[in-house]
Amino acid sequence: DDNKKLCLVSGEIIQLSSSMTMMFEVEDLAVASPATVSRCGMVFMEPSQLGVEPLLASWLQQLPPALHAHKELLASMFRALVPEGLAFVRKSLHETVATVDNNLVSSCFNIMDALLLPWQRGVGMEPLTPDEVQTLGRILPSLFVFAVIWSVGASCDKSGRTKFDRWLRDTVSVTSVEVLEGAMPSRDASVYDYCFDQEGGAWVDWMTTIPDFNCDPDKPFAEIIVPTSDTVRYTYLIDCLLAAGKHILCVGETGTGKTLNVSNKLLNNMPEEVVPVFLTFSARTSANQTQDMIDAKMEKKRKGVFGPPSGKKFVMFVDDLNM
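^ that's the sequence the OP posted. Answer follows.
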């Protein structure tokens, strides 16, 4: 610190001269004392100066082993689409809720992680077969295009989606990454109207991903939910991201079915170990009230540690977050 005295465990004190400085770069402050924390210096960089390359490098480092051979392909596709896509969103599109570049890039990586979950193998599991590795390499460009559509291109309004669809197709047609052109959905409709089917290895219409709807005559009228392409695709994204343990923020105008879609998903067709917890915010909700509501659902594991019941996992749904 300012005294320039190095205090050793043995009790010895070494006085540093004015020309000497010692700096330590630590991984974390998990075991640091308050005195140590108070002497830490933080280096802050503006996101605009940092760029998105560090996020890409960090994500590539934590990829599962099956994808290590495809790092160069993923990096080239990212550099071909994402930086230009972010610039296009900022310049030409209107967002329902303002975002920052790093957030959109993180969303892209979260969706990729969720889509690649079936291809990951844990400890003690059989590795991917050669045929599976070959299939993964073939569908990877299409998965990345899907992730870009629903991250970089997901925050704009309805008119912006038409512009983004046109921009994405034009960009892919002139890019140097040749595999991207074959990874695009058909031009018969917007890129937002297609879902990539990993089993079939092809782009399909959203409505073909669910069974035919049959109305239950005994069900109360107010509880009948007729699936549309909008509800299907948003439910699909929620399903993928929840399975991967990612956080989700659903935004939109009033009355567009955000609460209905999320509630319907959490209450139906969820794994047995998942327990939904519903919190509704109002103008009078305080931080302490929120903590009390969450604590009331938890079980005490040991001193200072609380969590869901054994073998269960909580999914917190906060409605009206803007309140």
